[in-house]
Write a structure and sequence with these properties.
Length: about 200
């Protein structure tokens, strides 16, 4: 096979003008991929900022109602000696993180009392005395005259902590109507008292 003077090929069988075009096409493809990647990053960032704004604008009462429901369901499972699924454990951890955020951002919100008390009972039942003590002590500090705080003092003593004493003498141990708060049975060894 004979080549003409105009039909010069490179050593790999591709004409030089096609080689240059191949590099241009590859360069354009790479540039296009970078642009698409940048656009996707911007879209992801916008979605994340919208999600953060939505989470920040969530009504704390709705969040607390959701947390209360989560802790109720998990507490029932624990008390009936059912094993928690990984999904239950994950929901419990996520609920505690949300609860801790609310405890930090709005520590004197009275709507926190019931979810914090239920979470503390749950952690006491699951033999996590440090977590339970932290939550019971939160009730003692922020809501010292609330009936759940008074009950929390008993749980703190059972867990080996030191309950706060209140100077008010007119306390009752009555719970709000419809409230169900039974004492946990902790099977582990008591933990060392936390220093405030």
């Amino acid at each position: 096979m004979r080549q003409s003077a105009h039909d010069t090929t490179h050593h790999d069988g591709i004409k030089p003008c096609f080689q240059q075009a191949r590099w241009r096409v590859l360069g354009l493809l790479l540039l296009g991929a970078c642009l698409v990647f940048q656009i996707n990053l911007e879209a992801i960032a916008k979605k994340a900022s919208k999600a953060d704004a939505a989470a920040a604008s969530e009504d704390p009462a709705m969040v607390l109602a959701e947390l209360d429901k989560t802790f109720d369901g998990t507490l029932v499972k624990v008390r009936s000696r059912m094993l928690l699924t990984p999904k239950d454990a994950q929901a419990m951890a996520a609920a505690k993180l949300k609860l801790m955020d609310l405890m930090t951002s709005t520590p004197n919100n009275p709507a926190l009392v019931l979810p914090v008390y239920k979470a503390a009972l749950l952690y006491a039942e699951r033999d996590f005395p440090d977590d339970a003590l932290e939550l019971f002590e939160f009730l003692q500090v922020h809501f010292p005259n609330h009936p759940y705080s008074i009950r929390a003092a008993k749980h703190i003593e059972k867990l080996g902590g030191t309950a706060m004493t209140s100077s008010s003498s007119g306390k009752t141990n009555a719970l709000p109507s419809g409230a169900n708060a039974t004492t946990p049975s902790t099977g582990g060894s008591p933990s060392a008292p936390k220093s405030p």
